[in-house]
Input
Amino acid sequence: MISRRRLLSLAGASALLAACGSNTGRGGSGQALKQWYHAYGEPGVQQAVEKYAKAYPKIPVDVQWNPGDYDSKLATSLLSDGGPDVFESTLQISSVRANQVVPLDDVFGAAKSDFSESILATHTVDGKIYGVPQAVDMQMLFYRKSFFAQAGVQPPSTVDELVEAARKLTRAGVKGIFAGNDGGGGVLGGPALWSAGLDYVRDHQVGFDDPLAAQAIGKLRELYTSGSMLLGAVKDWAEPDAFTQGLVAMQWTGLWAVPAVQKALGDDFGVLPFPKLGDSGRPSVPVGAFGAMVNAKSKRIDEAKEFVRWLWIEKTDYQEDFNLSYGFHIPPRRSISEKASKLTSGAAADAVKFVRDNAKASNPPDWTSVMRTAFNDAVSRVVRDGAKADEELKTAAGKVRDELKRLYG
Amino acid sequence: MRNGRAFWLFVGPFAIGLLVFVYVPIGWSLLLSFFDARNTVTPSEFVGLRNYADMLTDQPFLSSLGTFSVFAAFIVPLTFVLALALALLVNQISFMQGFFRSVFFLPTACSYVVASLVWKLSIFNGVRFGLANTVLGWFGGEPVAWTVSTSPPWYWLVLVTLRLWLQLGFYLILFIAGLQRIPQHLYEAAWIDGARPGWQTLRYITLPQLRTTSVAVVLLLLIAAYQAFDEFYNVLGTDRGYPPFARPPLIYLYYTALGSGGQDFGHGSAGAVILTLLIAGVTLLQGRVITR
Amino acid sequence: MKALRYLALSMAAVLFLIPFYLVLRNGLATEQEITARQWTFWPSEIHWENFGALFANPAVPMVRSMVNSLVVAVLQTVGQLLLCGLAGYGLARIPYRYANVVLYFVVATLMIPAAVTFVPTFVVVSTLGWVSDLRGLVIPGLFSGFTAFLFRQYFLNFPRELEEAARIDGLGHWGTYWRVVVPNSKGFFAALGVIAFVTSWNQFLWPLVIAQDQDSWTVQVALSTFLTAQSIEVTQLFLAAAISITPLVVVFVALQRLLVRGATETGIKG
Output
């Protein structure tokens, strides 16, 4: 015979379980829309996007900030029914094929012509637009003018000069260059290809199956082994701390870091694109834009679309604030970027010029995460392990070719 | 069938849970492993054994098994020997025995996440202020980028010492329990026969008497190494994914099926099935060895 | 010889305590002290205000994640003891035609570590709509074939006389279990319970997979997220780590005996 008290405590436990379950449950009408961002490193952005969401008059919106490996996390959540309704991401053709995102062409309306075409193109697959560009990000090389002057080194205009400069600028307590704790394999792979005039993918074909690619990636290995690279810093390449603390003479980071660097170093720095390898290549800067997207599994697609329209099309003052008040980004809309006074002088103006002259899409839709993983693994093995560049790239090219075949037949 | 009702009253809730959360997933996994299941868990394209063939020829997957082997080759003997040595030492003293036992057991309270934090950011930090590099500096050494450098692969030192610190106490307790089960009269008889305390009694009494414990410890260590995920993910993973080396099997499956590596449940499931078979094989072998 | 033993043990003990020292030192220092080129053994002044900064930092959901961890650990401990205890008793003591079949199914799961099946389990749990949900965090971990098996082995050796006395008093299986067996097995339940709590508190892979929303993060997921992101105050990260291990260190110091027993039970019989 079970005692009443025991029975009660049992019932209590299961009730607690059920109650807690419904607490975090979702999906009912009248509940808040869920919106995800990756973690921007600049102070104030999180508060800003929360402020925008709170200001939305129609329904409550919960903002989630996602530090860590955002791509993996987003990928997992889009598979389940528990994902966000609205999220920021770059567009991949595989998400379109798997029906994970919905077309947003009707959201744009007349504002469509105000967006930069090249940026819209990175959010377009088969003629449909799936993301409303929020902010254009670009990466470039920051260099410390005074360190260069001391060492008598000129800003590099070729990859060889870059390697040489890094070597000359290395002295006790200061390394020549910082390009991420992985030694640059993660962020410099693309720029290295472009420096040789190659590409990730071209017309549904592998763009780096070329001896020049091996040579370009080999240069990254040379840089890595030269002893002039900072490794194992506390904060990674996306934040300018190593550069502003004087631990390095050069750092690969992005336009967003310009305000922080200006604050720390004043005028004592300049910016450069990634230099060209030889005559066949060109200097380049990776450019990309996170776009606001709507999860196809959302139970309230229309409400989510309306929110996206309100936030990223209608509220132009928010877009201006988001792009320019914290880190620097280039507003994707001409009407805003043309009157952005912060981008008309100094390093920011140089960055805008690089974007005009040397832009390469950092995450084109036809460069899926499977391809990116294959390519980055190969680069990383070459740079960090000293594996043979031509063999590794051939393996990666094989995987990219398989994936292209799967996507395009 | 009164007993039937009573039986299911006791076992039923558990059995249903086991069915739903263990057997259904395994069955589903088997099913998925025969399909092209990218970005979906309800696939339609049957591919037969292709996923298995792919995984068994997939260089990263095979090298993840290699990674496990390297890791196990370090961590299993090291933990075994050190735990046994410390257990013998602790067992031989009387004053402060409880204190030492507690100290060695205390790391078990920490998660791999916390340990990774300490190891990655404080002990084996690549810059000058990390503890390891500070100590190196006292002896005039240059700072080493512990978790980045692949030649020599210093990250193994980081990962092995981390796990050693975390798990040693647990196995130490197992050995102490084993030691305390050895009947005292065996030692006394040996002393009468002229055996000297120390190496001889260790060799001819202690180690043979610890046989069951030892086999259990080795197997537990192996299976734990097989399932390594937490410290690898937290020490070597970054916000842009995981580097293409030192990937133990679970890390590789995580990135294949759930991570940015393509949400490929077909290949992920096939890999999981292969791993499960391997572990089940090892466990069965263990049963043979123990009951022999 | 004796002195040598103590020397060796003391040296090992110091090595084992260094990480704890580092967590405290880094958590209570300033960022400058940690990153200074000169090693400081202890912060020149203890920065208690780091606590305030940590709890005020909206980016680190410290309170929420600690509460989540606690709720998950408590529910998993209670649930596991309840379900696995009942099942273990049924398998050990209630004669039934298909009992052996069920036992085989339980034992078979011992060969498949839960960690390896996290992908398919995620598939099932997400189909149930339990992603980022307490149910998804707690329930799949309740059905441990291993714990049920340990309970069965334990109940096989439970003194029959006690049960027979209860039977004579007119109690059925259910009454016998709750009135006689459980009260006389408190030590065993407590030992497995403590181990279950520690395991649950420290688990990482499953919460990482299933707790997508920040609101459902456990403390391990929260720490890991900021560790891999590396864009947080280092002092706060270490302080958060210190706070996350405090409950378990207290449990450890208070319940040493139970833990040792639990470790021995769960270790050897495995």
The radius of gyration of chain B is 24 Å. Chain B touches chain A through 34 residues (CB under 8 Å). The domain at 49-291 of chain B is CATH 1.10.3720.10 (MetI-like fold). The first helix of chain B runs from residue 2 to 32.
